[in-house]
What does this fold into?
Amino acid sequence: MTTTRVDAQVSPARVRRFGAIYVVEHKLRAVRAFFWTMLATLFGTPLLYLFAFGVGLAALVSRNDAFAQLTGVGYLQFVAPALVVNAAVLVSVEEFMFGILQGFMWNKSFFAMSATPLTARQIVDGMMLYVGVRAVVTAGIYFAAVAAFGGALSPWAVLVVPIAVLVAWAFSPIAAYSSSLREDRSQFNMVMRVIVMPLTLFSGTVFPLTQLPVFLQWIGWISPIWHGSELARQFSYGPTEPLWLSVAHILYLLVLTVLGWRLTVVIATRRLDV
Amino acid sequence: MPVIAASELTKKYGETVAVGGITFEVPAGESFGLLGPNGAGKSTTMRMIGAVSTRTSGDLSILGMDPDSHGPEIRAQLGVVPQQDNLDNELLVRENLLVYGRYFGLPRAAVAQRADELLEFAQLADRAKAKVDELSGGMKRRLTIARALINEPRILLLDEPTTGLDPQARHILWDRLFRLKERGTTLVLTTHYMDEAEQLCDRLIVVDKGRIMAEGSPAALIREHSSREVLELRFGSDRNASAAEQLAGVGDRLEVLPDRVLVYANDGESALAEVTWRGMQPITSLVRRSSLEDVFLRLTGRSLIE
It folds into this structure.
């Protein structure tokens, strides 16, 4: 049997342009290792939550006139955009913790990558892009379920998907933290309990932030989840807030994203240069 | 023109000097070794040559380029086999090659073809669809080497390629590396095994504590720094030192180790006859040819593997 030899030269120039995309290719190929778990999570989580909140809790809350007066919508419509945002956040927090730690410590794949023409910046860019891809898929499927349950009142509600991606990215400071870890001493349990859990619970996800006493509301103000959920609600059934506040939501999420991203690049660059 | 030229190459981590100003050149096609104990600065040197570790001072030129300014261009021409395998265990064996090849900007079709050729070369073709964690240590090592060859590198860097492998796996690996050498690939390898250095290296530098102690071909180093033969005598661990006193004058030089006494002599058998004539009765005696281990011992006063 004869085969034609495919002649091809290595091309640092092409890597300079598409390096981050190659990292995404790599990561997506590795998804196969946990594909079934991921698929079950992707479709199972929205169903569970929508049944629990949208059907179970909503039946109770909808009987309460105070809630309707406060938000102007049914409970399902209120909770749906925030659930989509939270789902994307779970994916990104997972990748920004375990995905990063895996690359630096568990299988050291970032070190393998850094021996190629890739730069540390491209490796980090690739991880951000990959988190973006996973967030789009997660939020997209979740939104479809929400719409099927009647949780979306306007076609604009679909904008919750890009918003969820932005919120997912806004957790990138966690990636910077993970990149700085030199040993695995279950610091992530602490991150989950002390940072992610409170940010989820006190971010106006299942009840309006204004229901909290003022001395707890600040948790919502610093939480990307609150900013994202409120922004998504504007498109889903709003407006319920002044325009400047919506702009502030976007700016806050962008600042966190860029800050965490750049910081991760700096730390990763230093760490891979050993 | 040499493919690697290092001059006063230095790497410091804070106050610690890992590589303390080493100078060497490697011409194209040569098989060049860095021999030294753990912590000698071999791996650090390799990472600087690999254009991932920034040097603290000195000059370094790889394929005519400075790694500080042309890291990606240099790395595009290198194959790197790190001391610890860093294969992606979430990918299958063949996928590790496919993914890696893309990082060199190679089209998918070319990578796929090379991946199959390299799996043949690494004798892993029947494991293409296996999980990485199912491979033995030797197979993982061969896969890492196959991965390092996906871009048809001009220089292959191997950091301790056979450490931790059983003798059979080592010989398979040496055979593969020897074939690469025959094809003209420049090999740079670190090792603390002198048999490996003797097998694979045309020329080597002996490194200790970040400095070059000696340089030359294995044969020349042995000729220069050791005698032709060595007589190894064991008198029992508590008697070696006192026995050494009675051995004064036998051979050219004595080396007293905790477990044995080494007598360096051009003719080991006649040295042994002299020992017997003096009425000494070693528990065991052995005459062998000098090795790089002896060169290292001579140069540093220490064994390679401690």
About this structure: The radius of gyration of chain A is 21 Å. The first helix of chain A runs from residue 12 to 30.
